[in-house]
Specification:
heterodimer, A: ABC transporter involved in vitamin B12 uptake, BtuC, 0% strand, B: 3-stranded antiparallel β-sheet, 9 strands, binds adenosine-5'-triphosphate, binds magnesium ion
């Protein structure tokens, strides 16, 4: 088995998949803690479906996928946040309308444009062969930015996440932080979705935070644990998918689910004591 | 010199006026109780004082070294906080956020301040505990300690005892009164409670879309507005 793992690490496409995947998982987990706690986790799902539509356009028009998808998804992020902040609109149903429309739109474009069903499949459920050198560079810079911003603004992020009104009264520009979170989330999603798949990428945002919250009870511990859980789950998931020739995105999501069940048990046992 | 002066304030939502004609002045160490029925604009006025809602007309002036960011605010519990993973220490320390300016991390002084206020609220032994696992009364003390980290001047409380049992409510009121009397912290409190907070107050503001009354508590008790308010409630 160890030989197989060494084997795996010698393939350049696997090295790229591992590098991008680990970095994207880390960013998604950090952003996810705040998004989940602020009840914005649906946004991740919405953005990934919009990203699918954008990738479909790029594929049919023969454009570079990231150059189309990143701006489109960033704009969608602004838009979705506005929707969920506006109390008169039902935020989650509005997001559902947009995300299913974008998905349907993407499927139609792909089938009209080329009728290539493998493309649809790859975009929806991901492919570990999809990562290029450019993606590695981009995810390195993105995760660097996310990490630095997260550490620098950690106390403000806590304050905004815990109590928006109080933070606002303390002079924190809550909307600016929310927007920043949304933009970083959008980029994270676009980077990760070709590997994880549009239907599965939002798991990277939601699972680690929820898993960490089963056991840990302070914000700092939850944040650190979520980051570690995300990295370990991804590495384990992608290795399993290589060893058993299983689809990468789906395996990573199931490993995340396993981690969540494990942590739920630990949490339940801890409570009984 | 006045610490807060509101002149001809009015607030609107989407062009509909919800409160108008608000005029009052508070000095340092005053204790104002804001009363009025549901929907009369009390919370809106509180948000106005905090700078979260711009008045449609009129002005709010702070004096005596006070500014909007230096207000210790005790908001209503939001539904989000009920399952939020955060330690008591993390929550209390976040009260210092308004002191940041352009800084990024809490200084030793701010950590000491947080420890000092936790001690004062009698929650030092809870510092490492998870906020969501505390009782409603303990949570409210944590939030009061957080508010105190933000201010040495003015506490602004919006129905601080909603959902607390009478005994815990009385303890909280006693704590607030103590802060007001011994440390000279100005208190502005919205309350439906005609008991303890009302009798600790030096001034009363009665809202009913417009301002029915502002003055000292003694004058309020003798006024028409005061008689009908207290009379109406004692019938219940
Ligand atoms: N965000 C908002 N958008 C539109 N109208 C609002 C908004 N917030 C409050 N209002 C309206 O403004 C009026 C005053 O509301 P406010 O919350 O200030 O009342 P209140 O005196 O605090 O009531 P309560 O005792 O129930 O807390 C109400 O009629 C309310 O419907
Ligand atoms: Mg109110």
């Amino acid at each position: 088995m160890f030989n197989a793992i060494f084997d795996m690490l010698s393939y350049p496409f696997m090295q790229r998949a591992l590098a991008v995947g680990i970095l994207v998982s880390l960013c998604a987990a950090l952003l996810g803690v705040s998004l989940v706690l602020r009840r914005y986790s649906m946004i991740g799902d919405g953005l990934s479906h919009v990203g699918f539509g954008a990738l479909a356009i790029a594929a049919v028009a023969n454009l570079a996928p990231l150059k189309v998808a990143i701006p489109v998804v960033v704009i969608a992020a602004f838009f979705l946040l506005r929707l969920s902040e506006d109390s008169r609109l039902k935020g989650d149903s509005a997001i559902a309308v947009i995300s299913t429309s974008a998905l349907a739109f993407g499927v139609l474009i792909l089938s009209v444009g080329g009728g290539v069903n493998t493309d649809v499949y790859n975009y929806m459920f991901g492919s570990i062969y999809a990562m290029s050198e450019d993606d590695v560079v981009l995810s390195l810079s993105l995760s660097f930015i996310v990490l630095v911003l997260f550490i620098l603004f950690y106390n403000r992020i806590f304050s905004v996440t815990f109590d928006e009104t109080f933070a606002r009264a303390g002079g924190i520009r809550v909307n600016a932080y929310t927007m920043l979170t949304a933009v970083l989330t959008a980029i994270t999603i676009v980077l990760g979705m070709r590997m994880m798949g549009a239907m599965l990428i939002s798991a990277l945002i939601i699972f680690p935070a929820l898993t960490a919250m089963r056991v840990f009870k302070t914000f700092r511990a939850v944040t650190i644990a979520a980051a570690l859980i995300a990295i370990v789950s991804f590495a384990v998931g992608i290795t399993l998918s290589y060893l058993f020739d299983a689809p990468g995105g789906a395996t990573v999501v199931l490993v995340n689910l396993g981690a969540m069940l494990l942590f739920s048990c630990i949490g339940a046992i801890g409570k009984r004591k | 010199m006045a610490q807060i002066q509101c002149t001809d304030l009015s607030f609107t939502y989407d062009g509909v006026t919800v409160a108008e004609g608000i005029n009052f002045t508070l000095k340092k160490g005053d204790y104002l109780c804001i009363v009025g029925e549901n929907g009369s604009g009390k919370s809106t006025l509180v948000r106005g004082l905090l700078g979260l809602k711009a008045p449609a007309a009129g002005t709010i002036t702070f004096g005596d070294g006070l500014f909007a960011r230096g207000i210790g605010y005790l908001p209503q519990q939001t539904h989000l906080q009920k399952d939020f993973p955060a330690s008591v220490r993390e929550v209390v320390l976040s009260g210092c956020i308004g002191r940041f300016g352009n800084g990024l991390f809490y200084t030793k002084k701010e950590k000491q301040l947080a420890a000092y206020h936790m001690e004062k609220m009698g929650i030092s032994d809870l510092a490492g505990r998870c906020y969501r696992e505390l009782s409603g009364g303990q949570q409210q003390r944590v939030r009061l300690a957080r508010a105190l980290c933000a201010t040495g001047e003015l506490l602004l409380l919006d129905e601080p005892t909603a959902g607390l049992d009478p005994i815990v409510s009385r303890e909280l009121y006693a704590m607030i009164e103590h802060l007001n009397k011994t440390e000279g912290i100005t208190v502005v409190m919205v309350s439906h409670d005609t008991g303890a907070p009302f009798y600790a107050a030096s001034h009363v503001l009665h809202l009913k879309h417009s301002q029915l009354f502002f003055g000292t508590r003694e004058d309020y008790l003798a006024s028409e507005a005061g008689k009908s308010f207290l009379g109406g409630l004692s019938d219940v």
